[in-house]
Model the fold of this input.
Amino acid sequence: MPQTTSSPAIDHPAPTPQAAAPPVELSLEDRLALIDAAMTVRLDEAAVAYEVNTAHIPTEPVDLADVITGPLDTGPAPLPDLYPTPVAALLQRAHHRLVGGGWCKDALVDADGARCMLGAIRIEARGDDRLEADAASVLLDAIRRQFGGDVESVPSFNDAHGTPRIPLRMVDRAAGLADARGL
Done:
């Protein structure tokens, strides 16, 4: 038997675990780019799966003229139920005119046809001076109830505002007040 020489056992040192590098903080842009890439992969996979799952379904082209339609011309919106009393109904029509035709200040009617509070009352009174005066009086009373007795007139109140929100609200409240008074 041949004699073998054995080499002395080599003592290998055990590998020492290397400390892991601390995680790098990603910026918001980097995190968003990673999420975008992951979502793109998922969407691509979903698109392929959809194509595979629906490949056997026969389809016919769609005529877009059958699908896309424009709005119908129905004309102006109808007035809501009018108050039964004449002054209240006048104020409600004036409110509706201001909402539909526009509100202005510093003039009864501006170049675009928008009206102030008094201008809307005047056009809706249709020449009935007594009805116009009663409506303006109720409107001024409603304004003074809400904003105090320092308000001089309907036009001064109208012109003191830069937006139509409060004047329109006051015309609507005046209609309710006139109805409550039976006017």
In short: The chain has a mean pLDDT of 84.
